Amino acid sequence: MQKESFRFKSLNNTKLPPNNIEIILSALNGVNTVMVDMMDNTVTVDYDDLKTTSAEIRSKLEENKLV
């Protein structure tokens, strides 16, 4: 198990609600929990590193234009 935090762009200029970040990342195989901190613009992901990687999580954030 791994726990890692990622910084994301401010959502002030997007139409993406914060809970969508949780939905997007939770859909990845191996992601257990996703916690979004709007004050720090960080998302902390607890995941099984045998099923997904930090790079896959970052890629999903990039795909949704969050980083």
Outline the structure in words.
With 67 residues, the chain is an alpha+beta fold. The chain has a single domain (2-62), classed as Alpha-Beta Plaits. Helix content is 28%, strand content 28%. The chain is built from two helices and three strands, in the order E-H-E-E-H. Strands 1-3-2 form a three-stranded antiparallel β-sheet, with helices on one face. The chain is globular and about 35 Å long. The model has no long low-confidence stretch (mean pLDDT 88).
Topology diagram in text:
Layout: E1 2-7, H1 18-26, E2 31-37, E3 42-47, H2 54-63
Antiparallel strand pairs: 1-3, 2-3
Looking at the structure, what is the overall shape? Answer: globular
Strand order of the biggest β-sheet:
1-3-2
The main β sheet shows up as: 3 strands, antiparallel
Per the CATH scheme, the topology name is Alpha-Beta Plaits
Supply the CATH architecture: 2-Layer Sandwich
CATH class: Alpha Beta
Helix content range? 25-40%
Number of domains: 1
Mean pLDDT: 88
Which secondary-structure class do the elements indicate?
alpha+beta
Q: How many alpha or pi helices?
A: 2
Short recap of the structure:
The protein has 67 residues and is an alpha+beta fold.
What structural keywords apply?
Alpha-Beta Plaits, 67 residues, three-stranded antiparallel β-sheet, HMA_dom_sf, alpha+beta, 28% strand
